Amino acid sequence: MVDVDVVVVSYNSREVLRACVEPLVGTSRIRVIVVDNASPDESLEAVEGLPVTVIRQRENRGFASGCNVGWRAGSAPVVLFVNPDARIAPLDVRRLADVLRDDPGIGAVGPRIVDENASLQSSLRRFPRSLSTFATAVYLHRVFRHTSWATEEISDPGAYVRATSADWVSGACVAVPRRVLECLGGWDDGFFLYAEDIDLCRRIHDLGLGVRFEPAATAVHVGGMSAPRPGLVPVLAWSRVRYARKHSSPVRALLERAAIIVETGVRAISSPRGAETRRGNARAVRMLLRPFSATSPRPALDQDDVTDAISASRGS
Description:
It contains 10 helices and 11 strands. It is of the alpha/beta class. The chain has 2 domains: 4-127 and 154-221, Spore Coat Polysaccharide Biosynthesis Protein SpsA, Chain A (Alpha-Beta Complex), CATH 3.90.550; 230-312. The strands form 3 sheets. The protein has a 5-stranded mixed sheet with strand order 3-2-1-4-10, sandwiched between helices. Helix 1 links the parallel strand 1 and strand 2 (30-36). The radius of gyration is 19 Å and the shape is globular.
């Protein structure tokens, strides 16, 4: 009997994959499934000799698609999705599974996440809103850090010391009951990269189930919740607009799109992260200014944007 299927979606993750997988293999009642999204670096060589289930994809169809392939290959009542650049101990896996077993009203649970220096990462978030997007665009979130209207991020350290309900938790490490995944049809693989975890948690709430943050379990995420690579900024913007169009009224979706245009436009001019980041934001603005198809739930991405996502992503 297996209690938890741990699904790791890898893409060019050779340097970190073994450190993610090795602590979990051979653990009683835990099975590890590694889905490789056609990595050019032959990531799977890093886990050769380990007792894991390996699934080789012929092409990279994105993180959500890889997650769906992984959980459908297993049978355990709980599925834990873990980024290849994250690490979690077996005891912490069981703690997350216990939360779901003890409370059938919980549809997803995420652990406390720290970086490799043990610094707390802000993995608790509020659902996107146009007001907070506009506030972030003009850097008001740096002034009003702990106000709900100015930022989606919950940065108050006090929020991370007790179990609590959340709008959404990071997909870098999240456990979901198999019955919930089956009810939802899994992750929405229309999201290539970014916002798929927000969408998953939103649909869990729509089922009338809760999303829980559990600080008794800890995961280490190498690099933490870092900003996207410059080439991935248009992909992030695309995913955020797609999420808004999927879950909001047309008017609210249009406001969110406008807010994202303002945010990326300001970053294209003033980002302190360098010229590459400014160019990435400028590309995002150009993409978001294109007309939307009346039948499409999303704007079109340039092939360059998709290529950047495929070449730079680690599956998250």
